[in-house]
Amino acid sequence: MAAVHRVVAPNPGPYTGPGTNTWIVDAGPVLVVIDPGPDDDSHLAALNARIGGATVGVVLVTHSHPDHLPLAKRLASAHHASVQRYPGLGDDEVVRVGTLNVTALHTPGHSADHLCFWLAGDRALFTGDLILGRGSSMVTYPEGDVAAYLRSLDRVAALRPRILFPGHWDPVEDAMGKIEEYRTHRLEREAQVLAELTRGGGTARELTRRVYGDLDDQLMVAAEMTLRAHLRKLVDDGVVRSSGEADREVFDAR
Q: Does this model's pTM top 0.85?
């Protein structure tokens, strides 16, 4: 298996865990860098220290969120490498670099531009924020799409990966178990939302408080945006209806 090294960005927080993982993969005579992370001088220095005198063949980015993309251009420029990400790097496109063939998989749901990177020979999948090493990934309205997210999970499950290298937290050796855990979590949350709607309709904010209980303000905002993403799927599926103006939209079960 190709050697994989991790450098964790200094951006810990409630949504990033200990920080964003930047993965450096040995590809024979060159290196592949995945998710350079936030534009932070100390992180750039740590990456350059790990890279040393090696040649960087390509910088790959799973998605454009500010904890994954911003450092890409500076890092690539310093090493005379290219940056590749969606949509310039398309679905099923193979990046041939050094001794590796890296397949880009368009896996929307967390974000519309999300890619995973697949090393078929090693059955190793770099999952970005599709799947994390701990906890659950955010799928939040209006960017997040629960239906697309579930399809993306099904797609990577079909590959039967051996190991996952996530955007946050540690590598996952029980890859198939983690994918099923994520799928089950989303379906259980959907069932929870639908069950609450059968007890009575309400606005997204009201339903969030009923489903999630008391949360601090920051987590309540994230919870409401997650619940709105689930509501959008349920409306699209035809099992929930909405009425009223956007600022006072009411949802109830059909």
A: yes
Residue with the two structure tokens 């540690």: 170
The 10s digit of each residue's pLDDT in 170-185 is: 999 999 999 999 999 9
Collapsing DSSP states into helix, strand and coil, what is residue 99?
coil
Closest CA to 68 of 51, 81, 86: 86
CA angle 210/153/209 to nearest 5° reads 10
Strand order through the sheet with 240-243: 202-203, 250-253, 240-243
CATH topology for 4-173 is Metallo-beta-lactamase; Chain A (3.60.15)
Bridge partners, 8 (sequence order): 21
H or E stretch at 118: strand 115-119
Question: Which pLDDT value is given to residue 186?
Answer: 97
Domain range annotation of the chain: 4-173, 188-253
